[in-house]
Amino acid sequence: MPQKFPSNVYAQPVPGKGTGLFTSQTIPAGELVFAIERPLVQVPDNKHLAKACYNCFYLEPPEGRSAVEARTLKACNGCKIVKYCSKVEHKYECKALGRLYPKIAPRVVRMAMQILLRRQSGSIPDTGWQELLTLEAHIQGLKNETIYAINKIKWQDIELMSQAVAAFSGVSESPDVVQALVARIMINSMTVATASFDTIGSCVSTTAALLNHSCNPNCIYQFSEGSLTVRSLQAIPEAGELTICYVDPRSTTVERQKELQAKWFFNCTCNYCAKRLTCGQPDLPPSLSSKMSAVSLSQLEKEGRRLQDEASAAPADAVEILSRAMALFTRHKAIYPLWRYPWMSVRRDLKDAQIGQGNWASALGHALKIYLYIDPVLFPEAWIPHRAVEIYGLLKVMLEILHELTKPQRNEQLIHELWEYKIDFPTVIRHLSDEVERASNKGFGPRSPIARDLEMYGKEGIDFGKSDWQTELTKLKRAADQMVD
Questions:
Q1: How deeply is 484 buried, as exposed, middle or buried, from its count of CB atoms within 10 A (0-12, 13-18, 19+)?
Q2: Is 70 exceeded by the pLDDT of residue 151?
Q3: How far apart are CA 159 and CA 187, in angstroms?
Q4: Do 12 and 19 touch, CB atoms closer than 8 A?
Q5: Cα–Cα distance measured from residue 242 to residue 218, given in angstroms and rounded to the nearest whole number
Q6: pTM for the structure as a whole
Q7: What is the pLDDT of residue 459?
Q8: Chain-wide mean pLDDT for the chain?
Q9: Burial class (CB in 10 A: 0-12, 13-18, 19+), 16
């Protein structure tokens, strides 16, 4: 029986790319292309198992923060590992997970066990199993140890995971079948992320897995309340192929190609890679290539990425480590574009680290740099989800600062740091709220988590200011220029 697709989507071979998905109708930019109510398998990652619903991925807010919609997560009485806020269908692997408790199986092992146990019970019919088997496994590529330096996965790791799947699921399948299943999950998993693009889990959909890659994609996929949706980033003509970006589109051509080869074993030939463009901008602007040698540039960016990795492994020291990385690029700010990777990525990480430590003035400075000077270059349309998320992040920083400035025990240090800029925070918050609402409706669709957040902020009764936006924008540009490099 042929695979069923949404009514406006069909599959056909694409030379050099296997099978792709196409649309049978014209689709404007910023529209829902198709939705999958529930992927074949979806699980939170190990880091978020204790904080996320196994069913809908509702994520408990950090300590001291309020939730958009308060829910209570209950632990499963069987395995004592899974938590849920609503009905959760995990009976198939519950006993297997319980046998492991208090140890927790890796994400890929849990996904493979669930698929095999559901297939054994008939919950996954033969047609669904066959659809899964048609997906790429890239076994030979995964056995190539020269790839290990990048993706950190050895074939021996897959063999060990497959042995764990077989042992704890109790399903009688040959080692080759289980290994191929684990490989398919690794190759075809899609990231489950929050509205802010924070990874919290993975899923496999045999339909969405057919979406091919482009560094200039016309679609983006999102995940909300257990459902996967695909929305258009550009106008797509009838019979046009639907594409998504498998990697961060803001990274350079060299970095994108390296990651695509290491994880999915292909070289991208899209128009951006052919022209060496990143989000439509040249990888090497003349101001940079004419004044810095290729060797010096490579060494600079390699050290910046190394410090990023170091900061990721040592969160307590992240501000200090990332500040060193920022200093590397600041020395070349006259010629090095703010938007170029990895400087803009280091800035985002430093902003988040400053937020984590409550350094609101520094966090605001970096958020304003992104809002005013970086994202408008990379994503000219404010509703593009990557840019909308950063605007939403700036709004949240503004709200936190307003709280710090107006609470009974005011943050005197913050008042001192911000005093000279005379920013009317209520007016800025009002404008950003409107901007995020417009962007969210087009980029994420109605009733998105961002839209629900905005509803919560409105209910908190913020006294929106009465200054005009252009006056405040001038102040924000001055703050961005003076507060951080």
A1: buried
A2: no
A3: 15
A4: yes
A5: 6
A6: 0.91
A7: 44
A8: 90
A9: exposed
Contact at 8 Å (CB) between 450 and 442? no
pLDDT of residue 421 exceeding 90, the answer is yes
The CB-side HSE value for 164 (13 A sphere, CA atoms) comes to: 22
Encode pLDDT of 200-216 as tens digits. 999 999 999 999 999 99
- State which amino acid sits at residue 195: A
Helix (H), strand (E), coil (C) string for the chain: CCCCCCCCEEEEEECCCEEEEEECCCECCCCEEEEECCCCEEEECHHHCCCECCCCCCECCCCCCCCCCCCCCEECCCCCCCEECCCCCCHHHHHHHHHHCCCCCCHHHHHHHHHHHHHHHCCCCHHHHHHHHCCCCCHHHHCCHHHHHHHCCCHHHHHHHHHHHHHHHCCCCCHHHHHHHHHHHHHHCEEEECCCCCEEEEEECCCHHHCEECCCCCEEEEEECCEEEEEECCCECCCCEEEECCCCCCCCHHHHHHHHHHHHCCCCCCHHHHHCEECCEECCCHHHHCCCCHHHHHHHHHHHHHHHHHHHHCHHHHHHHHHHHHHHHHCCCCCCCCCCCCHHHHHHHHHHHHHHCCCHHHHHHHHHHHHHHHHHHHCCCCCCHHHHHHHHHHHHHHHHHHHHHHCCCCCHHHHHHHHHHCCCHHHHHHHHHHHHHHHHHHHCCCCCHHHHHHHHHHHCCCCCCCCCHHHHHHHHHHHHHHHCC
The encoded tokens of residue 433 equal 């709220």
Question: Residue 271 has which token pair?
Answer: 């128009």
Whole-angstrom distance, CA of residue 320 vs CA of residue 244: 35
Please, what is the angle between helix 343-356 and helix 318-330, to 10°? 150
Beta-carbon-side half-sphere exposure of residue 321 (alpha carbons within 13 Å): 18
Residue 65, pLDDT score: 53
What percent of the chain is predicted at pLDDT more than 90? 68
Asked if residue 475 lies in contact with residue 422, where contact means CB atoms within 8 angstroms, the answer is: yes
